[in-house]
Each structure stands twice: as C-alpha cells, then as structure tokens.
Design a protein that fits this description.
Four Helix Bundle (Hemerythrin (Met), subunit A); 7 helices
C-alpha cells in the first residue's frame, strides 16, 4: 500500500499540533499550581540566541498551515504573532489544526512533484511537493514543537515522551 501525500501530511501535522495543545494544558496546570507569571514562561528559552517558547509554538503552527495550504493551492492563513497567554496560543493551535483538517485529500494527493517556490534568506527556493513536505516542513514543525516541549520541561512542567508523541 502506498502512502499518499495527504496521509503523510494532514493527519501527522494535525496530530502534532494537538499533542502540542495537550502539552500546553499541562503547562497551564503547572502555572496555576505554582502561581507562576505566564509572561516568564512565554519568554523562556534554552539559549540566549534561540526563539522564546511562544515563538516556538507560533512557528510550529505556521509551518504546518503553510505546507498544507501550499500543497493544496490555497492561500496560507496568516495570524498575528501577538499571543501573550497559553490560552491564546491554544486558540492559535486549534485554528491551525482546524484549517489543516479542513483541507480535503483530493487537494493534496498527487502533489509529490508540484513545484513550490518559497523565499529562503531573501532568495526564491524551489521545492518539489514531497521535498517541501518531508525535507523542510515536517522537520520544522517537529523541531519547533520539540523546542517548546524542551523549554517547558526545563522550566519544571511535568512532561514525558508520551506527551510529545501522543498516541500515533
């Protein structure tokens, strides 16, 4: 059985965002129990030169929406990067997952070789559909979700591997 572009994208990307939502639920419980200022966690990072927690979540959502929209020849939904609370990040995750799940398989299947041009470092970069999905977008979504997980874990949120992986 062959795996379709839809199967390789929509279910996996939506599931990762939904797992990220569960991780944020645990972070909110941690904040509430310890009376931590949410702004401290939103701005937390593992290294001075990396994006803070809030930006990690934003990018994971953005990359997931972007690849699905581009494969489906749809406008990429743009969201302002203005979330200041975990609840607002949860809304971003929910909107992103809902958009991704709304795209029907027939809009994505067969896009393995579709040419997609993206600006990378100010220069147009050409990707095939499968190359963009598997070589760029999915790794980026997982990277930024993993960084968000690691930042929360580093800040004492009780998380485990299963929280990140969910139930695939």
């Amino acid at each position: 059985m062959k795996m379709s572009m839809y199967q390789a994208s929509v279910p996996r990307l939506a599931a990762m965002l939904e797992n990220l939502s569960g991780i944020l639920d645990k972070a909110q419980a941690h904040i509430d129990a310890r009376r931590i200022d949410v702004a401290v966690l939103m701005g937390a990072r593992l290294a001075l030169d990396m994006y803070p927690f809030s930006k990690q979540v934003q990018i994971a959502c953005d990359k997931a929406r972007s690849v699905v929209a581009r494969l489906a020849d749809m406008e990429v939904p743009a969201y302002a990067d203005d979330e200041r609370t975990l609840a607002e990040l949860q809304q971003r995750i929910a909107r992103s997952a809902a958009f991704i799940r709304s795209v029907p398989p027939e809009r994505i299947d067969g896009t393995e070789d579709k040419e997609i041009v993206l600006p990378v470092a100010g220069k147009p970069t050409r990707y095939g559909g499968m190359q963009l999905l598997l070589g760029h977008s999915i790794p980026n979504v997982y990277f930024h979700a993993a960084m968000a997980y690691a930042i929360l874990r580093h800040n004492g949120v009780d998380l485990g591997k299963r929280d990140f992986l969910g139930n695939p």
